[in-house]
Amino acid sequence: MSRSPTGQYGLGSLNGDYWLTALGLSLGMAALSVPFLGLESLLGFAGLGAGAATMMLIGNPLSGMTGPYWLPAGWATLGQLLPPGASSSLVRAISFFDGTGAGRPALTLAAWTLAGLLLILFADRRAARRTHPQAPAPAAA
């Protein structure tokens, strides 16, 4: 493992495997940004604003960065289903607990990334139908 005695990223705040931590952080960034891009491609600037407002006003406060155990049960669960909460749980599991408990947050982040990709694909297909409508079928004789 590539562990540094002083920790990672120059501040000494993370201790897990460097590459796994970087992969976890990258998955968290993808799970946050790809759905934003999907909403923007589907709804325009309003979709980007709605996604950002949702994550900033709901996702960040419910993320449980110090641990979801400090939040009431229902709110903690919702927070862990959003990218900021899942990202913090994934990095915490990788950095401090040798990956124990990393499965659920990783799957949550992968699902958010996939949902964003599907939104982009749907928006692209919808735009293609608008620019190239199908010709009407010939009438049967």
What are the salient characteristics of this protein?
141 residues, mainly alpha, 5 helices, elongated
Note the beta-strand portion.
under 5%
Number of structurally distinct domains? 1
- Main pleated-sheet profile: none
User: How many individual β-strands?
Assistant: 0
Approximate helicity band: 55-70%
Q: Uncertain segments of ≥5 residues (pLDDT<50)?
A: none
Task: Please tally the helical runs, counting DSSP H or I stretches of 4 or more residues.
Answer: 5
Round the Cα radius of gyration to an integer and report it. 20 Å
The first-to-last residue Cα distance is 74 Å
Secondary-structure class: mainly alpha
- The SSE string, one letter per element, is HHHHH
Explain briefly what this protein structure is.
Helix content is 66%, strand content 0%. It is built from 5 helices and no strands.
Structural notes for this entry:
- With 141 residues, the chain is mainly alpha-helical.
- The chain has one domain (24-127).
- The protein has helices at residues 18-43, 45-59, 73-81, 83-96, 103-131.
- It starts with 17 loop residues before the first helix and ends in a 10-residue tail after the last helix.
